[in-house]
Request: fold
Amino acid sequence: MSHKGKWTIVYFMMVLFLSCPNRVLSQNNLPEPAVFYDSIQSLGFRNPIVMYQLAMWESANLRSHLAKERANLFGLRGRSGYLRFENWMHCLRYMKNLEERKYSAYPNKAKNDYYDFIAWWGYKTGRSYDPREFGFVQIIKKVPAPAN
Reply:
C-alpha cells in the first residue's frame, strides 16, 4: 500500500470517529429501571421506592446528561460541582453511605417519615427545606413504580 493510501485510510477513520456523537462514546452503561430498583432494595435503603423515585426524577428516567456522562443519578454535588462516579453502582453505594451517615444523626427517627428525614437532611437544596414545598413530593410520587 502506498504512503498516500495509508494516510487516506487514517483520514477516513478520523472522520468516522469524529462523526460519532460524543454521548455514544462516553455514555455509561445505565441499568434498566427494574434492575436499578432491585439494586436499591439489595443495598438496604430505608425507603427504596422513594430513593428510586428520586433517582428517576433527578436523572430524567436514567437518560440525563449527568447520569450518562458522570454516572450521577441523584444530582449529587460537591464543593467543585456535580460529582462524577465510575459507574451507576458506585453512585448508588455513595448515596447509601450518605443516607446512613445522615440517618445516624437524624433526631426524629421515631417519626418514621422519610420525607421529613430528607427535608432535615437537606437533600434537595443542601440546606434544610420542607420537601412538601414546590410540589416536590407530588412530583416524585408521580414517578411510576418499577415494573417487575
In short: Residues 15-27 have pLDDT under 50 and may be disordered. The CA atoms of residues 119 and 129 lie 5 Å apart.
